[in-house]
Design goal:
205 residues; 6-stranded parallel β-sheet; alpha/beta; 42% helix; globular
């Protein structure tokens, strides 16, 4: 990825970036299924089960106001996680691989208006809103933006201290539909000897 552009808008100040949280929760998870997805992976009617599983794990890990949450903003797991963390008083940082309208088209709009509304609900409340092309410049031609944003999130999480990071994923333990995705980030965390908590969707429903 390219270096930070001098003209790019930044959301978080340097002081916010280097502040020392008690815990850092990094998240990745499946999007809600498109209406024509086969086989089903995260059907829309399973949203309450997924939300409850995320809440339960955050409670078990003692997530609270002294902690930081990092995720992207796709419909499904990402937004459910961000919402649950905000409700517990965590600082929430959202990282997008594209400018907002392109991201909505790729990762939110297909799931319906309720998910667009949830996206903007989260946007209005979180402290950190990071857009990769603004902060890092255009993605290189050979680089997948979803894989790149995964590593960008991981770098920011690890910057707080490797021992503070817990990775949470809502995942069926299978490879995704393309580059990047939950498996990519899970494997990067595990290869670095990080803590990973898998909310296995094949067991949740």
């Amino acid at each position: 990825m390219n270096q930070l552009s001098a003209q790019s808008p930044t959301v978080a100040t340097d002081q916010e970036i280097i502040s020392a949280p008690r815990q850092v929760f990094l998240f990745s998870g499946h999007m809600i299924d498109a209406a024509d997805r086969s086989p089903a992976r995260f059907p829309a009617d399973k949203e309450p089960l997924a939300a409850a599983a995320i809440v339960k794990l955050l409670d078990e890990l003692g997530a609270g106001a002294d902690d930081v949450a990092i995720s992207s903003g796709a419909c499904g797991g990402d937004l459910l996680f961000a919402e649950a963390c905000w409700q517990r008083g965590l600082r929430v940082d959202i990282y997008l691989p594209f400018v907002e309208e392109e991201f909505l088209k790729e990762s939110v709009n297909f799931a319906g208006e309720c998910w667009r509304e949830k996206f903007f609900w989260v946007k209005e409340r979180v402290r950190g809103w990071h857009i990769m092309p603004y902060e890092l410049g255009p993605t290189l031609t050979a680089e997948d933006p979803f894989a790149a944003v995964n590593l960008w999130m991981l770098d920011h999480a690890l910057a707080y201290g490797t021992t503070k990071v817990s990775f949470i994923c809502l995942w069926d333990r299978q490879a995704g539909d393309g580059p990047g995705g939950t498996k990519h980030l899970h494997d990067a965390v595990v290869q670095g000897s990080g803590r990973a908590y898998v909310l296995d969707t094949t067991k949740l429903w």
